[in-house]
Queue: 2 jobs
Job 1
Amino acid sequence: AVLILLGPPGAGKGTQARMLERRFGLVQLSTGDMLRAAVAAGTEAGRAAQAAMAAGGLVSDDIVLQVLKERLAQPDTGQGVILDGFPRTGAQAAALDAILAARGGAVGAVILLEVEDAPMIRRVAGRFTCATCGEGYHDTLKPLRAEGQCDVCGGTEFRRRADDTAETAGARLAAYHTQTAPLIDHYAQAGVLRRLDAMQDIAAVSRDLVRLVEPTL
Ligand code: AP5
Ligand code: ZN
């Protein structure tokens, strides 16, 4: 199965993709994570992506498709994949359709995480993740249960993303509305779009998501 989580920065794509991984044995494929790894490793793709990411704009389709195809070529795509943060432009959606068609497949479901703009800046600006296992947290919305310790793995080191400032979050939201939101129609016309109220708390979003996803697996 190929599932897509569609929604603006802070909608909860990463949080819910990790839930689906644990629950259904799917593999999360986040182009944001792939690009951040490329930047950290100093690869050619990473050097080309860095400036756009820091400014909150989209990285070029060529570079994104290059890192995604490299990742898809690896064998561990499990019971299926959850695309988190991809596709983000019409050209990326068309490329994905072509890649899947070549394998005799198609997009199984696209879940649109519907949210309001203003609270998204707050979600993004307070976010941090466990450096050991990658679990996501938030200063006030999802704090650590034990001070200084990851709930999942007990790790004590945490990271904040360089682009998680209120200023850059605004640019990222604008990029979503102009370049990514048109994909909603593309997938509605293909008959695979499902809408989910992602202003609810994390547990309620997870519950609705499981209900939507389970029948498509
Ligand atoms: P990417 O890494 O994809 O970031 P993003 O889309 O901005 O999404 P986020 O990771 O910010 O949000 P999320 O929806 O995963 O929310 P989360 O679950 O963490 O992209 C980064 C950059 O890379 C882009 O700006 C671009 O430059 C580049 N890029 C990546 N892919 C690209 C592509 N395909 N093409 C071009 N460029 C690309 O949740 C946020 C916070 O809220 C967390 O703290 C969480 O605990 C909390 N939270 C989650 N759900 C809830 C809830 N229901 N209620 C309350 N709090 C919640
Ligand atoms: Zn951890």
Note: The two ends are 6 Å apart (CA to CA).
Job 2
Amino acid sequence: MNNRILVSACLLGQPVRYDGKAKTLLNPLLQQWQEEGRLVVVCPELAGGMPVPRPPAEIGARQDGKDVLQGDARVTDTSGADVTDEFVAGARIALNVAQTQGCRFALLMEGSPSCGSQMIYDGSFSGQKHAGAGVTAALLRQNGIQVFSQDTIEDLRIALQRAG
Ligand code: SF4
């Protein structure tokens, strides 16, 4: 079987983001992988029970997804609600989908508190980012799944080629 790739639903055009919109990635590689039957689509936040639309959420105090999974950081939204449980539940569902579908790779939306793989917002809701991964990206990595984003899609192409 071809190596499968877990993909953020919003990158594939599904209007599931907090603002009710998609973040469609127009890239021929994505189209090629879709035609090859490699793509497995997930939105961790919806899977964790969050509605669309929903208030934007951030991981607190310059921490990241690893800290949330260890119980050392919380995820809150702009209304002040603690949505940590939903984010962790969604990450676990995404991992389960990836494992049952045989995904060794993931292509996730950069910057998201769930899907971000290199940069996330710093918890101040002021538009500032810092280095770190979201909750789902962190959990996937802890379980041996290589996580890429729209900014590193070429690296994913190379990794797939090497994997054969
Ligand atoms: Fe997109 Fe991931 Fe946010 Fe869902 S959780 S809207 S897939 S970035």
Note: The first helix runs from residue 28 to 35.
